[in-house]
Design brief:
alpha+beta, two-stranded antiparallel sheet, elongated, transmembrane, membrane
Length: 128
């Protein structure tokens, strides 16, 4: 594979108000430096350049869409799972579709968690 590098460095000159020495200068671009290098690449160097500058950007370009699609699929699955599990969700002694036996067990468990306060203890003071 043939390759070349070219570089030109130029200087833009124009008059500046307030500096008398530049009053007569017309705007002009002066080329200062010209650089050109040519060569050929073969073998391992060409293979490395191809992988780093051609193949890898293409793979990453397609990978972003694959990851976006995967994220959408996972989001859809989680939404469907949440909707399907809502009918099974119940808290303490609220009504559920499973029957009264499970409801009684949950109520007994929730009541066992609530320990009564000692007699004469103020749990919460009411203020107006």
């Amino acid at each position: 594979m043939n390759c070349s590098v070219k570089l030109q460095l130029s200087l833009y000159i124009k008059s500046i108000k307030g500096i008398g020495q530049t009053a007569q200068i017309e705007p002009v671009v002066l080329p200062l430096l010209w650089f050109e290098e040519r060569g050929a690449m073969e073998g391992e160097t060409l293979h490395t350049f191809y992988i780093q500058l051609v193949l890898l950007p293409k793979v990453l370009h397609y990978a972003q869409y694959v990851l976006l699609a995967l994220g959408c699929v996972l989001l859809f699955i989680s939404v469907v799972y949440q909707i399907r599990s809502q009918e099974k969700c119940y808290l303490f002694w609220s009504s559920s579709k499973k029957g009264s036996q499970d409801k009684e067990a949950m109520q007994a468990y929730s009541e066992s968690l609530m320990t009564p306060a000692p007699k004469g203890t103020v749990l919460q003071e009411a203020r107006l």
